[in-house]
Amino acid sequence: MPMDYNIGEKIKKLRKARKLTLQQVASETGFSPALISQIENNNVSPPIATLSKIAKFFDVKIGMFFDEEEAESKYEVVRHNERRVVSRVISKSGTGHGYTYEALSFRKRNKKMEPFLLSVSERAQEETLYSHEGEEFLLILEGKAELILEEERIFLEEGDAVYFDSDAKHRLLAYDDSGLRVLAVVTR
After folding, report:
1. Residue range 66-86: average pLDDT?
2. Domain positions in the chain
3. Which of 16, 119, 146, 180 has its CA 20 to 30 A from that of 4?
4. Contacts of residue 186, Cβ cutoff 8 Å, sequence gap at least 6
5. What DSSP designation does 19 have?
6. Residue 120 near residue 170 (C-beta atoms within 8 A)
7. Helix locations, the chain, DSSP H
8. Better-scored residue on pLDDT, 107 or 23
9. Mean pLDDT, range 32-60, rounded to an integer
């Protein structure tokens, strides 16, 4: 019986987007290439446990396989009044960082980049450094900033850009309280 959610096609798209062979997916997940092929061609309905393992391998939520939306679009337009404010960021110590993120892309699924507009209203009092997987690109749109990157302090002003590996301990601070707007693009 054909699967209503077309799970096989979604798995095939994930695999092809990452330029992986059936054999590579099979080796990594512990299933046979024949089974992966059967699932991709919608000849076999994978049990939830199998689907869960495949979702973990592709780093997607299992729910995406049950998404009834139309096929993935090649592009996404987000109008300035549609942006999603992600949150007012609070530090580990519970103090406000004085900044907000606006998601500049939220409909396109399984993207390799996450673009945000970062608005900083004041210089944070503490300087906790953060690190995570991936890479980061920052473009100063307005104001002045100080980027702490490991042991270095880098002064940035309007028009300046910086690209770095996110596993380096880092922190972006407003240089003063006059307001800072930054285009931040992060990869996983």
Report:
1. 74
2. 7-66, 84-187
3. 16
4. 113, 114, 116, 134, 135, 136, 137, 166
5. T
6. no
7. 7-17, 22-29, 33-40, 48-58
8. 23
9. 84
User: Residue 47 contacts by C-beta under 8 Å, 6 or more apart in sequence?
Assistant: none
Cβ count within 10 A of residue 29:
16
Q: What is the mean pLDDT of the chain?
A: 83
For residue 97, name the pLDDT band (cuts at 50, 70, 90). Answer: low
In this chain, the answer to whether the domains covering 7-66 and 84-187 adopt an identical fold is no
137 touches 184 (CB < 8 A): yes
CATH number given to 7-66: 1.10.260.40
The structure's pTM equals 0.61
Higher-confidence position of 188 and 179: 179
How far apart are alpha carbons 114 and 136 in whole angstroms? 10
Residues whose CB falls within 8 Å of the CB of residue 4, separated by 6 or more in sequence, listed in order: none
Query: In CATH, which superfamily holds the domain spanning 84-187?
Result: Jelly Rolls (2.60.120.10)
Of the CA atoms within 13 Å of residue 165, those in its CB half-sphere come to 3
How many angstroms separate the CA atoms of 71 and 166, rounded? 32
pLDDT reading at 68 higher than 70? no
Q: What's the pLDDT at 188?
A: 67
